[in-house]
Amino acid sequence: MQESTREARRQRAVESLGVIDTDRNPRLDRITRMARSIFGVPMSSVTVMDHDRALYLGRDGFDVPVSGRGDTPCRLVTDTGEIITTDDARLDPRFADIEAFLANDLGFYVGHPLKDGSGNVVGSFCLMDKEPRQLTPAEMAEFQDLAAWAQSELLADAESAQSRATQQALLPEAPLEIDDVHVEGVCLPSLSVGGDYFDYGVVGRHVHVAVGDVMGKGVGAAILGSSIRSACRAVSPTISGGRALGTAVDAIERAVLADLQRAGSFVTYFHAVLDLDTDELTYVDAGSGLALLVRSDGTIEQLMGADLPIGLEAQPHEALTTRLLPGDRLVVMSDGVLDVLEDELGWVDEVGSLISRSGDGERSDAPDLVDTITLMARERIARDDVTVVVLDRRP
Question: Where would I find the GAF domain in this sequence (predicted)?
């Protein structure tokens, strides 16, 4: 393979990691910190090469986040794809033009290539010392183990970031505004990705809001959550009126039932449709029980149905109705929100206090409530995915 082609492939692999705009990774820092302690060297780094830059995403013993590619012997590792070491860098012609390395009076270097899943060399894990030295066979084996760990962490971090970005991209891109209605939501996975799902949109003169919570967390739950999203998107345009919602949720369940049962999972699901012309709010509650209707006078109603969660067994879903008038608000959550509240049992009153009128008589807007839940989830470290959607009819 020509050098230019190999470098182009390598650069694409680096860009696909999604790390070139980050400063450092605490898990990679931990590896370099351990390496310094184990081998008694003054410096260690996990270095990724981005075009003509060397990015020190993990580093200990120095605090330079980036340098020129030619200023580090890690480029030798990236260029050859091999372990590079030297008994005495001051006498090694391969190091003669690496001025920044020699200017720091360094005499020893060992670097191990870090590769992506296709074998492209994206960077190096290295040790540096002032005095010339050699690693014993046992030390080299331990160094290679640390390099494998660094590679695993680098790729895992990139995969997590990409998975999270993909899942977030499947959520509504922006708040919804139509007539006097404002809808906004947030989904905060407890891991890189999660099993919560929410959606909203407009079909004709009907505003749809849906929240699903897949049993479990992580990638498996996220995959199942995506299937719920697809089924919901497929049937929502067929709902000509709120009373057809039960039939639509039946169709969603039929679409995903076999997959959920094979996976041994289920989904709590809440779907509501607001008719903008009649103020009628129709909803189906399949095992959720976490929807509140807050009236303009501060009265709180919990919206609940008797349906089982989706995925346990095929069932007809009952569509219930109420009215959502100007000044009223619909709040739908996943059970992860309960983790970040002060009183899990008294959650209705606590959530009500968050969304009720403030002391000056002005009620906070939907974005304020979403931001409040987001801040609480980050401060209190939720054990489960946290999702909240607010449909606000402005007075």
Answer: 23-164
* pLDDT given for residue 87 in this prediction: 85
> Distance between CA atoms of 208 and 213, rounded to whole angstroms?
17
Contact at 8 Å (CB) between 75 and 69? yes
Answer whether 334's CB lies under 8 Å from 213's CB.
yes
Secondary structure, 3-state, 9-68:
HHHHHHHHHCCCCCCCCHHHHHHHHHHHHHHCCCEEEEEEEECCEEEEEEEECCCCCEEE
Q: Where are the alpha helices (DSSP H) in the chain?
A: 3-17, 26-39, 74-80, 99-103, 137-169, 218-235, 245-263, 336-339, 347-355, 366-380
pLDDT for the residue numbered 136: 93
**CA nearest 389: which of 373, 380, 377?**
373
Distance, CA of 50 to CA of 54 (rounded, Å): 6
Whole-number Å distance between alpha carbons of 80 and 253? 54
Which domains occur in the chain, in start order? 3-165 (3.30.450.40), 170-393 (3.60.40.10)
User: For residue 362, what pLDDT is reported?
Assistant: 46
Q: What is the pLDDT of residue 359?
A: 33
How many residues would you count in the chain? 395
Mean pLDDT by 10 residues, the chain (395 residues): 78 82 86 95 95 94 92 93 91 88 87 90 94 92 95 77 67 92 87 76 92 81 83 84 84 91 92 94 94 89 92 91 94 86 78 58 61 77 80 90
pLDDT for 361 equals 41
Report CA Rg, the chain.
28
302 CB-near residues (< 8 Å, 6+ apart): 289, 291, 292, 293, 348
Strand partners for 321: 282
- pTM for the predicted model, two decimal places: 0.64
Q: Which tokens sit at 341?
A: 């509240």
The DSSP bridge partners found for residue 323 are 280
Nearest in space to 371 (alpha carbons), one of 384, 355, 359 = 355
Per the CB < 8 A criterion, the answer to whether 364 and 312 are in contact is no
Identify the three-state secondary structure at position 240: coil
Burial of 126 (0-12, 13-18, 19+ CB in 10 A): buried
